[in-house]
Amino acid sequence: MMIPKFIPYKTELVYLTGFVEIAAGVGLLFPQFRYFTGVFLIVFFILILPANIYAALHNLDYQKGTFDGKGPTYLWFRIPMQLFLIAWVWFFTILL
Predict the structure, then answer these.
(1) Scanning 10, 53, 74, 89, which has its CA 20 to 30 A from the CA of 1?
(2) By the 8 A CB rule, do 28 and 34 touch?
(3) pLDDT, tens only, 44-67
(4) What secondary structure does DSSP assign to 10-67, as a single string?
């Protein structure tokens, strides 16, 4: 429900992003891949932010799977959280 209607293969895209998240998590376990994985995750977090904005603007309620949620007020939590995750990945994978 987070993906706009004009994008095809929504279900496949959700599974793909889930697989990418798991693969990135595994990549963080290996020191030789940590830097690359960190850069990848930062780009990934930036790329998925529009989906969160779309969901908030369309009042998506994640718990019920309906379009009667809190709407843009969700962004007051989600955007700072996304920035925190980007900073966290940067600190632990690129800076250190």
Answers:
(1) 89
(2) yes
(3) 999 999 888 888 888 888 778 888
(4) HHHHHHHHHHHHHHHHHHTTSHHHHHHHHHHHHHHHHHHHHHHHHHHHTT-BTTTTBS
Residues 1, 65: Cα–Cα separation, whole Å: 8
Cα dist. 44→13, 51, 73, 85 in Å? 13, 12, 23, 11
75 Cβ contact partners less than 8 Å away, ≥ 6 residues apart: 52, 53, 56
Any idea where the domains of the chain sit in the sequence? Answer: 10-95
* Length of the chain as a residue count: 96
Q: What is the pTM of this model?
A: 0.84
Distance CA 44, CA 47 (A): 5
CB 73 within 8 A of CB 66: no
**Bridge partners, 66 (sequence order):** 61
